[in-house]
Amino acid sequence: METVLMEASADHQQKNGHLQVNGASDKNSDLVKTYQKEPQETKVLLEDDGSGKNEIVFNMAPSTSPIDIKFEKITFTATEGSILKGKNKKQILHEVYGRFPSGQLIAIMGPSGAGKSTLLNVLSGYSIQGVGGKVLINGNPRKLKAFRRLSCYITQDDRLQNLLTVSENMHTSADLKLPSSTSKAEKQAIIDEILSTLGLGNTKETLVERLSGGQKKRLSIALELVSNPLVLFLDEPTTGLDSSSCRQCLELLKVLASQGRTIVCTIHQPSASLFQMFDQVYVLAGGRCLYQGGTDNMIPFFEDVQSPCPKFHNPADYVIELACEEYGKDKVEKMVQVSNNGQNLKYFKEPEKILKTGFTESTIFEDDNGNLQATSKLNQLKVLLKRGYIKAKRDKTMTYLRIAVNALTALMLGTLYFNAGTDGTKVIDNYNLLFSILMHHTFSTMMLTILTFPTEMSILIKEHFNRWYSLKMYYTSVTLIDIPLSVFCCFIFTSIIYYMTAQPFDNIRFNMFLITSLLVVFVAQSFGLMIGAYFNVVDGTFLGPTLTVPMMMFAGFGVSLRDLPSYLYWGSYISYLRYGLEGVVGAIYGLNRPTIDCPEDQYCHYRYPKKFLEDIAVKSDQFSNDVIALVLFWFILRTLSFVVLKYKLHAVR
Ligand SMILES: Nc1ncnc2c1ncn2[C@@H]1O[C@H](COP(=O)(O)OP(=O)(O)OP(=O)(O)O)[C@@H](O)[C@H]1O
User: Where is the composition biased (Polar residues) (predicted)?
Assistant: First the structure.
């Protein structure tokens, strides 16, 4: 890849008072009202993104006053263990102080386990439990809601919608993060500008799953830049990237910072050249601050703590070696003492300026009420449904495999139980088939949700924290989006099996059968959602089937309900499969079904459906009660899943 030294200001042309962006029309620039157009004298080295267009222009200056972050006596105490084993408190941050001024690219460095991510989480407001101390924004105590409106958090792992193209992802973000009053053209202009800024202009129509690691990282940043945040928190933005992508990523952040944003990122051990790109570093070890100040002032600091940096040694490597106690524990203590756990401002680039920061007059923090999201609930639902539809259309597992599995299983069972429905000798076989059908609906839908939802969960946590949508609207969209496909799969399955196994050809019976099957699908799916929302894939895969076994036992299939011991009878009320079984058996053998055909030379024990129903102790006249019970199960499990999700979103913070 060719590296090009670029002078951004040379590409900015002032026309009619508006800035022309990379050949973008005046009209477009005109439309981008939310972005201030201030030509920057920003010299940056940029990689060619493959478009052959190296002229990437950074012109998205923030539209409100800059944000200075100051923190005092910050502690973070994690609670470990369980109620059974007893809970332990573990202090991770020990009364650290610091100042992160606006317009700077700031690195939080330190060895693994030093508390970098913990500090980032506390400052961004992601962690709220176990936090002590004060975070001041422009000198005022941080009001979390208001602060979240101006900031964003970019996670270490790229939590992106892989089945959407770059452009679709950006449009979803714009539709959710920009006020509804923003016109389509305005949104398009903003998206084009950001994508071209971040070197993604050439990948608009590429599916995210096909992007390189560096491009995914830039897309993660691009998605949040849509709302033009003043503060960006990034957890290890360079992890997993090759050196040129690392450089490109930091260069972009540096330019965004130079426009007045406050950019804080955690970083492990940058190379000497990457280290020099930061304006300020904050070094942590064991939850205490070892150094805070400019990158250039680190060498004098090492001398002040009587640990001069060896010649030709990368200061970033050296400080980590010191922090890891490679030169002794006393060196760490000395550094904490000289830095005064983050209170010493002597090593900042311009200490006089830092003394002033945090006392900027600010009016933007008065409002801490109202919605966190930028758009109405209805709009959120609309955008999420649209995204869900695109995903479903392209998802091979969730959509095509599901349709195929339903059709193939129906064909297989249909062949195995061919014509069993009208054969008086095969009534028991047919009864087994009915239970197998319920098992198919239960496991195929429940397991799919358990296996796929945890991936969605990580995206939900990120997007919800970054205020894309409310949990209620997300949940409503998840519930609604799957209904058409569930209905379609269930209809295909039921039609094939009903026809092949020659169940009574009667519209009422078929509809009763289909409705019961569909309700079982919905209940099993909600059950899977509840498990998937709380547990990881491994635990969920174990728990889902394990918890289904008692439901099967109490369904009245193996042991009839009549033979259930009275002290266990309650189990049948909480088994949704009992109502499912009652519903399908009622559809096939109820409604006063006449005598079943019996071949002349054979004995048919269950020629008379009434006798069969008596023997298996299944009531056939309970269809409406079964439907009510299944709908209730569906509703209760969906509500519980929502509560679990809400709890989970709260618990991770
Ligand atoms: N919720 C928690 N419960 C228990 N321990 C925690 C919790 N959060 C963090 N820790 C512990 O606190 C320490 C600091 O964690 P943190 O993730 O902040 O480190 P880090 O400096 O970002 O490390 P790395 O660079 O390896 O990501 C670690 O020992 C970690 O195990």
Answer: 16-26
Which of 117, 155, 284 is the best mutation target for the ligand 1 pocket, counting ligand atoms within 8 Å of the beta carbon and taking the most? 117
* Residues 6+ positions from 244 with CB-CB distance below 8 Å: 1, 3, 47
CA of 112 to the centre of ligand 1 (A): 8
Contact assessment for residue 117 and residue 652, using Cβ atoms and an 8 Å cutoff: no
- Rounded Cα distance between 460 and 344, Å, is 39
Q: Are strands 280-285 and 105-109 parallel, antiparallel or unpaired?
A: parallel
Residue 408 contacts by C-beta under 8 Å, 6 or more apart in sequence? none
d(CA 164, CA 568): 50
pTM: 0.80
- Is the CB of 117 within 6 Å of ligand 1? yes
Instruction: Output b/e per residue, 8-42; b: 16+ Cβ within 10 A.
Output: beebbeeeeebbbbbebeeebbbbbebbbbebbeb
Ligand 1, atom 29, residue with closest C-alpha: 113
Q: Which atom of ligand 1 is nearest to the CA of 115?
A: 18
Residue 75's DSSP bridge partners are 132
Q: Pick the residue whose CA is nearest to atom 26 on ligand 1.
A: 112
| Count of CB atoms situated within 10 Å of the CB of 470 | 16
Q: Is the ipTM of this complex over 0.90?
A: yes
Q: Which helix (H) or strand (E) holds 136?
A: strand 131-137
Q: Are 341 and 289 in contact (CB under 8 A)?
A: yes
Task: Reduce the secondary structure of 28-63 to three states and give it as a string.
Answer: HHHHCCCCECCCCCCEEEEECCCCCCCCCCCCCECC
In terms of Cβ atoms closer than 10 Å to its own Cβ (0-12, 13-18, 19+), residue 430 is buried
Cα 333 from Cα 307, distance rounded (Å): 12
Query: Mind listing the pLDDT tens digit for each residue in 406-431?
Result: 999 999 999 999 999 988 899 999 99
In whole angstroms, give the CA distance from residue 596 to residue 589: 10
Among 520, 546, 379, 361, residue whose Cα is nearest residue 439: 520
**Alpha carbons 463 and 158: distance in angstroms, whole number:** 12
Distance 68 CA to ligand 1 centre (A): 26
Q: What is residue 369's predicted lDDT score, i.e. its pLDDT?
A: 61
